[in-house]
Amino acid sequence: MKKNRLILPTLILALAASIGAHAQRFTTIRNGLQWTDTRGEMVQAHGGNFLQVGKKWYLIGEDRSRSWNPDVNLYSTTDFQTWTFEAKIIENGVTHPELGRSRMIERPKLMYNAQTGKYVVWCHWEARNYGASEAGVFEADSITGPYRTVWTGRPIDTKSRDCNIFVDHDGTAYFISTTDENTNLGLFTLSSDYHSATAKTVLCEGMRREAPAIVNIHGTYHMISSACTGWDPNQALITTSRNLHEGWSTPRRIGDRITYDTQASSILTIAGTKDTTYIYVGDRWMDPDLPHSKIIMLPIEFDKDGNMQLNWREEWQIDLKRGTWRDVKKKKK
Ligand code: GAL
To answer: 90, 146, 273, 309: which one has the fewest Cβ atoms less than 10 Å from its Cβ?
Structure first.
């Protein structure tokens, strides 16, 4: 008798605990705020990308605290709330004295090469007047460094500025950059060690696009890019193709007129046990100045025809384990 009386309260407690655990699985992404690291300092990782290693996501990006001549920082997180400063992997004129002090790095992107077991960074390697139009490549045995210089120059003799990397499901990596004085996009296939560009395909010819970000979803490549308007935001466009090298659709608009005051830096894939969420990661530059530029993360949505959509959300929630996301439930007043 006594035993039976305990069953109902026990069940209620178990149910409450499971609802609690479920609620806890979601982490809230709040957009527009300054991120702070565990030292209490501003997270400085602009124009970068994420690399997942086990349960950690590493974030590489430009340290813009001195505005010009950015260094390259590396942070890690397990929940997109707590940001641990890992290392300043490239410090202008210090860690790589052979490269001098006068150049600057923009849009550093980190990838892991499963064949060589090395971490490789490709970036825009520029002079103050954007006249150099070069790329830079760095490599390390451990994700936190030290990174050694592999190469700097123009990939396949092509003037190259704003850039990104794209690693396909088969491990083939590409460097994609704004080429020929901001006229075209160049898609450069990388060697198997990711050290050099071995082939070039011209994309978006004459369209003057930059800040490209590519993702492969079930064999369809989606590429978001911006117009070239410096630090000012503009309307992002999206184009798709089943083949990276040809057949790209006529670009169409995505997001609002100024892409919610952002410019793409990367597309982050969160593959969970239940689903996969694709996240648009963008820079809100000059908010209000370069060092205080914000990182904005928005869940990518798809309409019934599979077209990507981008909607503004001040806050939203993601379950990193299950790979699902949801809107924040508004509390009833
Ligand atoms: C933007 C570009 C940034 C940076 C900036 C400088 O168009 O996306 O990476 O180069 O211009 O004005």
So the answer is: 273
Mean pLDDT across the chain: 93
Confidence of residue 58 (pLDDT cuts 50, 70, 90): very high
Does the pTM exceed 0.90?
yes
Q: What order of strands is seen across the sheet that includes strand 197-203? A: 160-167, 173-179, 184-190, 197-203
pLDDT in tens, 176-202: 999 999 999 999 999 999 999 999 999
Q: Is the CB of 106 under 6 A from ligand 1?
A: yes
For residue 210, the ligand 1 atom closest to its alpha carbon is 8
Domain that holds residue 119: 44-327
Return the residue whose CA atom lies nearest to atom 1 of ligand 1: 230
The number of folded domains in the chain is: 1
Q: Looking at the domain assignment, is residue 158 inside a domain?
A: yes
The label of the residue with tokens 């830096």 reads 265
Q: Is the C-beta atom of 228 inside 6 A of ligand 1?
A: yes
Domain with residue 174: its CATH number is: 2.115.10.20
Minimum CA distance residue for ligand 1 atom 11: 230
In-domain check, residue 123: yes
